[in-house]
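Saturday, quiet lab. Running sequence design on the structure tokens for the scaffold JK sent over.
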């Protein structure tokens, strides 16, 4: 078996119904992993599971809201019951709303964004860690440039992503010595429904980006899938970005960025 291969391993992709998560599921399946596809919307994950299975992969749709700890715990258990093991956790589920200046923001919607983007990552890690640690295990937390710099109108998003970046470091500190690899990975500006919502808001420079400049979800997905492979075992845990040319080279992603 090649060190690029994931045959015999199982991955759980949170937020697999669309965008980057769906592309990550495809990329993991292409390397031979069995996939648990997690999202709130049933139809798209059922359709993706059927497509992956038709291509020879093992895939199961698991409807779940990552904000609900009990539901996440049951989902992780269902994946382990189905596949017999869990090796990789991709914390990709996320929301951009509420978009707007802080004083105009609905407090309940702000709290809900943190509950999904940050507590959702905790929920999945909390439930998955006992299984991941039995195997060495990999966690990829989908990060963002917004984890490290504020953008107008995105206080919930930036705050929750900053929290995830710290959670990545806390996980490394607590479990790195046990063989767990934990990556935060910023995927760039990617052509997904999230960017459509951002563009419609018109509130900050990201909303005014040329749509032609957005990159396909398959690009970050290729790197995320590679991070799960044995080939990446020497790649340091921590926060990384698709803008890192050395990472793109290691993951064999042929794509150039202006900066
Ligand atoms: P997207 O197309 O809107 O997809 C978001 C995914 O998250 C969907 O599968 C959605 O599924 C799932 N999700 C949202 N809330 C959920 C919940 N409570 N429980 C379970 N699943 C949930 O967005 P995307 O652009 O692919 O974003 C994926 C990740 O990349 C996010 O973490 C985002 O912050 C990050 N990111 C994106 C960009 C970009 O330019 N697109 C840049 C930096 C970082 P359901 O609606 O079916 O639940």
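Result came back. Writing it out in full:
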């Amino acid at each position: 078996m090649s060190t690029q291969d994931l045959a015999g391993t199982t991955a759980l992709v949170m937020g697999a119904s669309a965008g980057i998560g769906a592309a990550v599921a495809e990329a993991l399946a292409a390397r031979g992993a069995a996939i648990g596809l997690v999202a709130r919307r049933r139809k798209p994950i059922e359709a993706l599971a059927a497509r992956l299975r038709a291509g020879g992969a093992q895939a199961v749709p698991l409807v779940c809201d990552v904000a609900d700890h009990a539901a996440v715990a049951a989902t992780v258990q269902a994946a382990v019951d189905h596949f017999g093991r869990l090796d990789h956790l991709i914390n990709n589920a996320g929301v951009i709303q509420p978009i707007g200046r802080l004083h105009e923001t609905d407090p309940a919607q702000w709290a809900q964004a943190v509950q999904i983007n940050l507590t959702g990552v905790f929920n999945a890690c909390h439930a998955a860690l006992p299984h991941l640690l039995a195997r060495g295990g990999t966690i990829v937390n989908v990060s963002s440039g917004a984890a490290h710099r504020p953008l107008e109108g995105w206080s919930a998003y930036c705050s929750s992503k900053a929290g995830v970046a710290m959670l990545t470091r806390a996980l490394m500190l607590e479990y790195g010595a046990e063989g767990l690899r934990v990556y935060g990975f910023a995927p760039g500006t990617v052509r997904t429904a999230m960017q459509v919502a951002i563009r419609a808001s018109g509130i900050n420079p990201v909303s005014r980006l040329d749509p032609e400049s957005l990159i396909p979800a398959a690009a970050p997905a290729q790197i995320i899938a590679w991070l799960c492979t044995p080939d990446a075992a020497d790649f340091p845990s921590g926060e990384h970005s698709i803008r890192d040319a050395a990472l793109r080279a290691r993951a064999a992603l042929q794509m150039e960025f202006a900066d």
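Notes for JK: The chain has one domain: 10-249. The chain is about 45% helix and 15% strand. Ask whether to fix the surface positions before the next round.
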